[in-house]
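Example record

One chain of 51 residues, shown exactly as stored in the release files.
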Amino acid sequence: MDFQPKGKGRHATVTVDPAWKARAIGKAGKNLKVARAILLRHTDVVSVSVS
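Predicted structure tokens for this chain:
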């Protein structure tokens, strides 16, 4: 996981195996939305992306 400054918070980039990328993102980005909500609650991360 890599963190970069973004506005008032940070941006997290998560690196996953290409074979697992679709599962990490989830249908319609559901898994990313859940991860972002958890991170917002406990850290200053404001956005998440998968690479």
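Notes: Strands lie at 2-6, 9-14, 45-50.
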